[in-house]
Amino acid sequence: MRIGILGVGHLGTAIVEGLLRSGLDPASLVLSPRGRSAALAERHDLSVARDNHALVQTSDLVVLAVRPASAPESVAGLPWRTGQVVMSVCAGIARAQLSVEPAAIVRAMPLTAAEIRASPTVFFPRLPAAQAVLERLGPAIALASEADFEVATVVAAVYGWAQDLIRRTADWTTGQGMPAAEMRRLVALTFVAAGRMMAEKPVPMPDLMAELVTPGGITELGLRILAEGGQPALWDAACAAVLTRLTDVGQKDAAPA
């Protein structure tokens, strides 16, 4: 299977790097001729298509990784064919907005952690060809509907918020005179440990939290201060705002189902 990357920006680059780390033959990849394609091609000996028309003609699966606002026009008028798969990673752009008939469309939301093959990626609908590609980048999680996919996409924003929490916590410790490199590693790996416990220990999440939040302990103290400052409500509001943005973008100019 030949994979075309239409849009070689930040996320497209992360996907390419992850696919190559997974052992994918560089000859199986072809890049669109803009963005970071020239640098990537030189670094990994990859092919760059003459234009998007040529990229589509020579690819079995096309990863659409352009800016969301540009996605509909980027795919219009290209030589899509039966049996081809278009995997859009453009947040908020509904399948109905992408005119790629008769190719099949899959929506996916990889994180930039795809670069290190650590991205949990939601996708819809379940198509084996798309799933096989995504599993090279980390765990692939199929969802039951496009509406479910939109809600799950909010987690891609949370990914960035979590990194900001890591940065802020590491900055706080270095402000106390701690060494920066060691604190960055400690804080980042603490978040990894927290995520693994939630993902891998087969115990209800409230029970896991009850084990951590002992009366009078430091976890309880910090959570109480955050709650008094309105953190839980603000977090919910931020998630809701992201979902509203995604839904608004996805419905704009979308054709009826």
Report on this model:
- There is one protein chain.
- The chain has helices at 10-21, 37-44, 52-57, 71-75, 128-134, 146-175, 180-200, 205-212, 218-228, 231-251; strands at residues 3-6, 29-31, 47-48, 61-64, 85-88, 104-109, 121-124, 140-142.
- With 257 residues, the protein is α/β, with parallel strands linked by helices.
- It has 2 domains: 3-143, NAD(P)-binding Rossmann-like Domain (Rossmann fold), CATH 3.40.50; 150-249, ProC C-terminal domain-like fold (Orthogonal Bundle).
- α2 (37-44) links the parallel β2 (29-31) and β3.
- α6 runs antiparallel to α7 and α6 crosses α10.
- The chain is globular.
- Residues 253-257 have low confidence and may be disordered.
- InterPro entries: 6-PGluconate_DH-like_C_sf, NAD(P)-bd_dom_sf, P5C_Rdtase_cat_N, P5CR_dimer, Pyrroline-COOH_reductase.
- It comes from Segnochrobactrum spirostomi.
- This is Pyrroline-5-carboxylate reductase.
If you consult CATH, what is the topology of the largest domain? Rossmann fold
Shape: globular
In CATH terms, the superfamily of the largest domain is NAD(P)-binding Rossmann-like Domain
Instruction: Report how far apart the termini are.
Output: 30 Å
C-alpha-based Rg, rounded: 21 Å
In spatial order, strands of the major sheet run 3-2-1-4-5-6-7-8
Element order: H for helix, E for strand: EHEHEHEHEEEHEHHHHH
The percent range for strand residues is 5-15%
**Total of domains:** 2
> How many extended strands?
8
Helix/strand/pairing class, anyone? Answer: alpha/beta
Largest sheet: 8 strands, mixed
State the low-pLDDT regions, or none: 253-257
Helix content: 40-55%
CATH class of the largest domain: Alpha Beta
The overall pLDDT, averaged over residues, is: 95
* Count of alpha/pi helices: 10
The CATH architecture category of the largest domain equals 3-Layer(aba) Sandwich
Keywords: NADP
Binding site for NADP(+): 6-11, 65-68
Domain Pyrroline-5-carboxylate reductase dimerisation: 160-245
GO molecular function, one term: pyrroline-5-carboxylate reductase activity
